[in-house]
Amino acid sequence: MASSFLEIGLEAGKRWQELTAGERPWIRIGTALCGEAAGAFEVADAVEAALESQGVSATVSRVGCLGLCFAEPILDVQLPGGHRIFYGNVDSESVSEIISTHVAGGTPITAKALGYLAQEGSTAPVPDGIPDLNKHPMKAWENRIVLRNAGNIDPLDIYQYIANGGYQALHKSLTDLNREETLNEVKASGLRGRGGAAFPTATKWSFLAGNPAPEKFVLCNCEEGDPGAFNDKNILESDPNTLVEGVIIAGHATGATKGYIFIRHGHNGPIDRCRAAVDQARELGFLGENIMGTDFSYEIEIALTGDSYVAGEESALMEAIEGKRAMPRFRPPFPAQVGLFGKPTNINNVKTLAYVPEIVSKGGEWFAGIGHDTSTGTVILCLSGNLKYTGMIEVPLGMNLKDVIYEAAGGMKEGKTLKFLQTGGPLGGVLGADNIDVLLDFEVLRAAGAIVGSGGLIAADDSTCIVDLTRSLIAFCQYESCGKCFPCRMGMSHLLEVLERLCRLEGTTDDLALMQKIGVNMQAGSLCGHGQLGFNPVSSALRYFGPEFDTHIVEHTCPTGTCLEPSYSPAQSRR
Hints:
Layout: H1 5-21, E1 26-30, H2 33-38, H3 40-54, E2 59-63, E3 75-78, E4 84-87, H4 92-104, E5 113-117, H5 137-140, H6 158-163, H7 168-175, H8 179-189, H9 201-209, E6 217-222, H10 231-238, H11 240-254, E7 258-264, H12 268-283, E8 299-305, H13 314-321, E9 345-349, H14 350-362, H15 364-368, E10 371-372, E11 375-376, E12 378-385, E13 391-396, H16 401-408, E14 418-423, E15 429-432, H17 442-447, E16 456-461, H18 466-480, H19 486-503, H20 511-525, H21 529-532, H22 536-554, H23 570-573
Parallel strand pairs: 1-2, 6-7, 6-9, 7-8, 12-16
Antiparallel strand pairs: 1-3, 3-4, 4-5, 10-11, 12-13, 14-15, 14-16
Helix pairs in contact: 3-4, 7-11, 7-14, 8-9, 8-11, 10-11, 10-12, 11-14, 18-19, 18-22, 19-20
């Protein structure tokens, strides 16, 4: 390594100071997937063109997502020594005015501003007539840990990450703590897996740490094919270095020799930015031989997979990395004994590993002081559907789900009434509008018939048919079944056939009992969670909306009028 960590930190601080308090305005544009879909790249090109045509000098950075996806594309202007002013739903036509009036002229356009964020140390006056963005409903409830840098730093510039505390946790783990002490910090935090199972992270790590094999692997799972979930991808697009640092620390704590970051093929933004983070970490000596002058050596490889939802299951993930079809393995042996390429392996979700740097940096007890009971820390939620504010928020576990919907998300859009929430991805469940007065807690939500799962929350209004929605979820699950397990392969197909029949208003009173029987067999006989949890959408829908199913069966009527024709069934295409 050419420079010491202290020298790298000083250089990073110098560069950050030049950005935030230098002589050039700093313009940041959100270019995560949500911004891209809304036209952020066109806005970024328009900014560059306007600066050139008007002869204005400014630094332009393409950053990640601030979480306010409903307002994308978001353009953020910070004048030298000033506060950050955000403009929402910006289009190419409005860019020229923002550049001439605000960037060049120094006067924010109050009528178009979404809000401002006061900058520490700035002596500039707080802008009149522009609201404090921290008081926006989606920001007011947040406690950002994993998302602390999202939308603030350039994900392609590792120095910006270091200037904001990045890689201090790795330095602490390597120089101030030993492997066992690092593992103990994670244990003290109470961190549980954020991929859906909520298994204690330190316990999982200890299985690998206790294996004396000379070659061991750490795998990070970013398959994330869940409809309504985009937090893993957003972390990689907005702050990939926090994940890379977490993967390195996990390797040190468990005595692993190599890490793999597994990303769903086609997610180009997350892939490109994560690759850049790995390359830059290697250039600065945070990967490779004798990291930070210690005896710890470690490498990370980016592994891609095809469009396979089941590849998110940890043993199927290993099969995919080995170049095989993504199918779950029989267990035992478990991955910590025989994993990737036959070597001991640990697998965690993106969000789980992204918490690790802050836990090691601030201590496990700090993290354990956030949350509720054994559900410690925060949870990242993806809000979509007919809500006033859609996007991504990071809130403490223990927050009431009702407050998430009616306060943070602003409730339903005007003229809409909440009917139910679909939670935790396609293998999750639904909660009726009268049943969302529950805490965001792993056990509490599971008891209510829902799960935190991937963090997706889809709000449906009273025009949505629960039977039709359940059919759509099971159609997804049927299409994504890898086919290895007979109970899952045939069970999903049979569930879909029954639900298609109900949606055609041709169901019978025996159909509900038939679906229950299929679900029990799937749960008992499937190798992985895809089949074991596959009946969840049906069972939770029946639990809260049984009368609506009865109306379809007994009265041969759909109350919403949306079930008169069968939807496209992936099952049909596979026959």
